[in-house]
Structures are given as structure tokens and as C-alpha cells.
Specification:
This protein has about 375 residues and is of the alpha/beta class. The chain folds into two domains: about 90 residues, no CATH class; about 250 residues, Rossmann fold. About 45% of the residues lie in helices and about 15% in strands. It has 16 helices and eight strands. It has an eight-stranded mixed β-sheet with strand order 1-2-4-3-5-6-7-8, with helices on both faces. Strand 3, helix 8 and strand 4 form a beta-alpha-beta unit. The radius of gyration is 24 Å and the shape is globular. The termini are far apart.
Length: about 375
């Protein structure tokens, strides 16, 4: 091999290495930092760090990096990562006086906004079209996104659409958690969206309600674009999501609850609701709920599905485990009884012997819900 050939080979090797280095993907840590910086106006981590942390050493930055990576990989609630970093902050005495609660709050908001999360169960479908990361609401410090799933062969046109709202105590989970519900609905001929919403403790409960209303308005405002029937919009939610969707069904177009997320020229009313393990907010039985949510009793009445039920409330299907200790079964019973009392359409199915999370890891709840929506929207073949 002559010297010129050797030289060409070396040039080729170094060029390849250079190109590989130039196209290296960001590390998990760099990706997490980018996401965090992009959401700084909402999470306010760096500004809080600047005001609360007395000294930033190499040891601190290593502990912070460990915390970030733990959060980025966590599929369940990242409470252990939060507590570990809080413990480090206490042990090293690096928190300014009076900052502990503020620091813990910002770590909680950061973690619940950016942790990996996971679907409620595995479900795949090949007969649907997916539209990802669509912004549906805009606020001064936060944009919210949804994913839209459209059947390739709809049973009817225009297509009814279901807004799927995840649970998690108004604190945890993201839209990916409810994605299997949306995909299942789309595979059966309905359009469906999964949404993110702002969460406690970063915002107030009223802000979360505004987000759910904004999602319905987005669907209605964009119905023609995606072949959706603006007069056939349903909603499904579990636990905290059950509260949000049932409130959608009992408070159509209440100006106190609409918020300013966008598309306020259209209605946020829904035409059918499925609530799974749904909190009723019956004020006679929930004496401490207002303190937990940080609202007055008068404000609690405004955001209570139970207190807002009337004869015009959207048709409701309730599914509840008889052994639920987190949201006791009387919640669905109370909603059911009041619906009957005012003459509104309601159905209730008990899951015998099951607790709060009976709908996780399986498709039985979404199967029952889909049948209800198909009947309500007259989609039977």
C-alpha cells in the first residue's frame, strides 16, 4: 500500500470520527436540563435555587445531577428522589432560613412535571392515526399539550371524540398514563385525546379545572380540521380525572370555571361522561376536603360535581370498586342518587371486591366505557 493510499485512509477515518462526534445525541442529563430550562417560567427551579441555596459546591452539583437523572428515569411517583435530595440539602445545611418548604415544593413540581411516567397498561393498535404534542392551552408561564388519536376507519362521520383525563390526586402522572384508554377508544371508531394539565402544588385546583375546560374547547374549535363532531364530545377520567370530567358534565359553560387557556369563543360542554373511582365532593360528607385542596367551603361548592348536578347534566356512567379506601364507594353512590333525583341519565357499575386502582393494568374499565360512549353517540352498526 503506497503512502498516498495510507493518507487517504487516515483522512477517511478521522472524517468519520469527526462526523460521529458532531452528531452525538444529547445525554439524558443534557436533555433533562433542556426540558427544565424550557419550563423555568412555570417550575421556577433555577430562580428558587438561586434564592434558597446558600452555597453551590461540586458536591452539590453532583447531588443535583443524581436527582435529575433519578427523576428522568422514574416510571412511578418520584417521591424517593425528592426525599433523597431534600435530605442532602438538610444534612449539608445549604438552605437559607425559612426556605425548606419552598425548596421542597419546587422539587415536587419539577419532579411531577418531568418524570418519565408510564402507560396505565400496554396497548397497541395499527388502525389509528396519531397526532402528537399539539398545544391546546396557553398561559403566561405554561403551554399545555395533548395527543390526538383518530380511527382510520371511523364507524360514523363526523367522528365523536372523547377527552381522556388522567388521575393522580391532581398531583402526579402525565398524559401518557391514559394513552392506552385513548388508543382503545380510537381502535373502536371514536376519536380521543389525552391531555396534560397543570398540577398541585404548582397551581390551584381551579387552574386544573380551567385546563380541562380548555381541552374540550380546543377539540370543539378544531373539530372540522380533524373530522370530529363538535356536538358529540365525551370525557373519561379516573380518580382526580373522574372529578374533572364529572365536573365538565355538570358545569357546562360556567364562566367561573372556564379560565383563559384559549378558544373561549366556543363551548366547553360535553355530551357524555365516564367517571372511574370518582370523587363526588359531597359537602355533607367531605368536611376536610376544602383544607386538603386549599379552598374555602364556598369555593369547594363551585368545583363540586355533586353540588352542581341538575336535570341538564350530561349522561354519566360511573364505575367504582366496592372496596375502594382512597375514594370510598359512597362517592359514586351519591352521584348516582342525585342524578336519579333530578331526572338525568346515569348508570353505575360496581367492581366487586376491588379497590381504588382496579382500572390499572387491564382494559376492563375502558371496554365498559367504550360501550357506553358508542350507545350515547348512536354508533352501533
Amino acid at each position: 500500500m503506497n503512502p498516498k493510499t495510507n493518507q487517504l485512509i487516515l483522512i477517511f477515518i478521522f472524517s468519520s470520527l469527526f462526523l460521529q462526534c458532531g452528531t452525538t445525541k444529547p445525554s439524558e442529563y443534557e436533555d433533562f436540563l433542556t426540558r427544565l430550562k424550557n419550563d423555568e417560567s412555570y417550575i421556577q427551579f433555577f430562580s428558587t435555587e438561586k434564592s434558597c441555596i446558600t452555597i453551590t459546591t461540586e458536591e452539590y452539583f453532583q447531588a443535583r445531577k443524581k436527582f435529575f437523572l433519578a427523576v428522568s428515569k422514574e416510571k412511578e411517583e418520584p417521591d424517593d428522589a425528592i426525599e433523597s435530595f431534600m435530605e442532602f440539602s438538610r444534612e449539608k445545611s445549604i438552605l437559607n432560613e425559612g426556605c425548606e418548604d419552598k425548596w421542597e415544593k419546587v422539587l415536587t413540581v419539577l419532579s411531577y412535571e418531568l418524570y418519565a411516567n408510564m402507560p396505565i397498561f400496554e396497548y397497541s393498535a395499527s388502525n389509528i392515526n396519531e397526532y402528537r404534542d399539539i398545544v391546546f392551552a396557553k398561559y403566561p408561564n405554561k403551554k399545555l399539550s395533548l395527543d390526538l388519536f383518530i380511527p382510520q376507519e371511523p364507524v360514523m362521520e363526523p367522528i365523536p371524540c372523547i377527552v381522556a383525563i388522567h388521575g393522580g390526586g391532581w398531583v402526579v402522572n402525565r398524559r401518557i398514563w391514559f394513552e392506552p384508554f385513548a388508543k382503545y377508544l380510537a381502535s373502536k371508531g371514536l376519536a380521543a385525546v389525552t391531555i396534560d394539565y397543570r398540577k398541585l402544588p404548582g397551581v390551584e385546583i381551579m387552574d386544573i379545572i380551567h385546563d380541562s375546560k380548555a381541552a374540550v374547547r380546543w377539540v370543539r374549535a378544531n373539530a372540522e380540521k380533524y373530522g370530529i363532531n363538535p356536538n358529540s364530545i365525551g370525557a373519561i377520567g379516573a380518580s382526580a380525572g373522574g372529578h374533572l370530567v364529572t365536573l365538565l358534565g355538570t358545569t357546562p359553560n360556567d364562566p367561573k370555571l372556564e379560565g383563559s387557556g384559549g378558544n373561549n369563543q366556543v363551548s366547553s360542554a360535553v355530551q357524555a361522561v365516564v367517571g372511574i373511582a370518582t370523587p363526588a365532593f359531597n359537602l355533607e360528607k367531605e368536611s376536610r376536603l376544602n383544607k386538603m385542596l386549599g379552598v374555602s367551603k364556598n369555593e369547594l361548592k363551585v368545583i363540586s360535581p355533586y353540588e352542581n348536578i341538575d336535570g341538564k347534566s350530561a349522561p354519566l356512567f360511573l364505575i367504582h370498586g366496592t372496596e375502594d379506601k382512597i375514594v370510598p364507594a359512597h362517592n359514586s353512590q351519591d352521584l348516582y342518587d342525585k342524578y336519579l333525583a333530578v331526572g338525568a341519565h346515569v348508570e353505575l357499575t360496581w367492581i366487586e371486591g376491588e379497590g381504588h386502582g382496579f382500572y390499572e393494568g387491564n382494559d376492563r374499565a375502558i371496554k365498559m366505557a367504550t360501550e357506553f360512549f358508542i350507545k350515547q353517540f348512536s354508533m352501533e352498526k
